[in-house]
Amino acid sequence: MASIIGKKVGMTSIFDVDGNNIPCTVVEAGPCVVTQVKTVENDGYSSVQLAFGEKKEKTRPNH
After folding, report:
1. Domain coordinates of the chain in residue numbers?
2. Does residue 25 have a pLDDT over 80?
């Protein structure tokens, strides 16, 4: 299975050779980091968890 992971950053349009206006989505892709690997032996199934983008900083309550 081929896939891509990313974040939509906007829209634009292009023109084909016949002059037709074609709407396009702009996607920021990668880099992706493998954060976890599940195996059949340990977890009962196999999978890969990926991360993309920046991690949000935790906010601390004012005391």
Report:
1. 6-52
2. yes
